[in-house]
Amino acid sequence: AGLGEFRIRDLNDEINKLLREKGHWEYRIKELGGPDYARIGPKMLDHEGKEVPGNRGYKYFGAAKDLPGVRELFEKEPLPPPRKTRAELMKDIDAEYYGYRDEDDGILEPLEQEHEKKVIAEAVEKWKMEREARLARGEEEEEENIYAVNDDESDEEGGKEREEEGQQKFIAHVPVPTQQEIEEALVRRKKMELLQKYASETLLAQSEEAKTLLGL
User: Fold this and answer.
1) How many angstroms separate the CA atoms of 65 and 88, rounded?
2) For residues 96 and 101, what is the distance between their CA atoms, to the nearest angstrom?
3) Measured between alpha carbons, how far is 156 from 78 in angstroms, rounded to an integer?
4) How far apart, in whole angstroms, are the C-alpha atoms of residue 83 and residue 176?
5) What SS3 state is found at 54?
6) What interhelical angle do 201-214 and 179-198 show, nearest 10?
7) Nearest 10 degrees: CA dihedral of 83, 87, 91, 95?
8) Which family does the similarity line name (predicted)?
9) What is the pLDDT of residues 65-110, one digit of tens each?
């Protein structure tokens, strides 16, 4: 490390140049039918027994690993914090999470009241200034009539009245049965259903014959 940054870089470049030349000879030996030293040869280890680090085939030896800009290449990024499961997240959700206990400490409510008073005072002051400005211009102040009826509302009420009047003036052009006639028809229908359910064919025939004789 005492050689200086530039000398260390020159030495490291020279070592990498020799390694490239060594790689070319190994490839040539393989072409001539010899052993593949690139595959079966020993790995390059540093003084700690670890494999020499490199980047895109360029190796860094000794003090070259601590040069500025090189150290950052081999610093491992911190692992991201483990993600919590849904069950773990639900453990932290309670009434306080939704804001139901914000007023329990007695701090928020007085602050809200104070802010509300301030907003109301500002609104009143703004209204007074606008009113004085209108009076200064000679504009007459017209008070809003809260009992005034809008055209839309009057139309709706008028429509309802017209509907009620139309219902009162309804005239039926067909005979409408009375309540008593409806009840008698229901009773006759009920009797016929009971007869059809419980009477035999003979009784039905006799009943029909009796009706014919009586002219019913």
Assistant:
1) 43
2) 5
3) 71
4) 78
5) strand
6) 140
7) 110
8) Belongs to the ISY1 family.
9) 778 877 777 677 777 888 888 888 888 888 888 878 777 778 888 8
DSSP class of 104? T
Q: Please give the model's pTM, rounded to 2 decimal places.
A: 0.33
Mark out the alpha helices in 32-146 (DSSP H runs): 37-40, 86-91, 108-136
Tokens of 79: 């692992």
Which has the closest alpha carbon to 63: 54, 55, 71? Answer: 71
For residue 83, CA distances in Å to 3, 79, 89 come to 47, 11, 10
Token readout for 167 is 């219902």
pLDDT band at 124 (very low <50, low <70, confident <90, very high): very high
Task: Please check the confidence at residue 169 and state whether its pLDDT lies above 70.
Answer: no
CA distance to 22, 26, 36, 47, per residue, from 41 (Å)? 12, 10, 8, 18
Q: Which residue has the tokens 């009971």?
A: 194
